[in-house]
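Deliverable D5.2: sample structural annotation.
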Amino acid sequence: MTLGNNFHQKLEKETGISMDEDSIDLPKEQTATDSLADYVKFLFEEGHLSKDELPIESGWTRYLLNTEPVHTEGDEMTRPKEVLPGVFLERNYNREGIIRKMRFLHRFVEEESK
């Protein structure tokens, strides 16, 4: 993988999130939204994402990540969380949606690392 051989091992060790080509398993001891926040923090802390890449869209009018808790048209995010200073995460997704967003972010950082 372009993210390096130890990416998935380090991700699991630090966040409890197990990820491979076919599946994503979230830790049972926390909510899926907390796992998404942990994944985003991990990507930033490991240098796979930066504030310069924000906002990251998640639909036609919504951002998944932004430097402020608003979407493309200025509407407030639903249930935003500031996962790092100046990095806001939209958390209004069910478990299935969260796993889709994690896959999306994984593909995004893979493309950026090429």
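Annotation notes: The beta strands are 18-19, 24-25, 56-57, 63-66, 81-84, 87-89. Helices lie at 7-15, 32-45, 95-113.
The annotation will be released with the project's public dataset once the embargo ends.
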